[in-house]
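Sequence in, structure out. Go.
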Amino acid sequence: MQVKHGLAALAVALMVSTSAFAEEVKKEAVIVSIGDSGISARSKEGPLNVVLTPDTKISETSGLVQKKTRDVKSLIPGLIFTAKGELQGDTITAREIEFKDRDWRSAVATKAGTTAEFAELRQAIIDGQEYAIREEATVYFATGSSTVGAQYKEQLKALAQKAPGYGNYRISILGFADSRGDAEANERLSLKRAGAVSNYLRQTGLIQPGRVLSPSAMGEGTTAPGEAAPASDDQARRVVVRIVTPKGQLSK
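Output:
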């Protein structure tokens, strides 16, 4: 009986001791890697292990008030995040993890993301969110054609030569068509034109293929963010190529 009382007392003592050493904190860090046991990260103070539990709340913030619930798949290497929870030594058991939308996009742009992540990144660039245009070229096409003219190949080559100088860059390729004919056919043609430009850029050997985002079909009657509407059908048959970087990256 005394042994049982002794073990019970020891268990209580350990619980009290553990809670005494646990500290409620809020830590900002960047993800180094992710494993089955949690996140390996680095804060300003040094290495930080973040334990995730089934109750850990993960959320993404955009602007001042918008917040979205995310899952653990959104946590990727290179992402800056804030963890709230109990800290013991260099390990925090996270009750809540928050990260900013722009930091997530920057992490995807820097690291090799999944197909879904790059699709979301590409859409953000199309919509003009959080990205700055560094260089731009427009390739025009003949009616019904998707052949890149020789004069435009020189422009694209010059753009490709500049791209690596922008560090954390991506190349956005948007294809357009004029309004004549069937809308669905025009959308297919706009994608074919964008694909032709994308293939040429990749074949130059001047840029990393992974930094060229999948070409996008914009169809007829649309414009790229910040672009003036075309004044004629000749101007509407085009592909807009842009070198973009996160807006937080202010210089080369």
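Check: Residues 120-246 form a domain with the 60s Ribosomal Protein L30; Chain: A; fold (CATH 3.30.1330.60). The helical segments are 2-21, 101-110, 115-126, 150-162, 183-203, 233-236.
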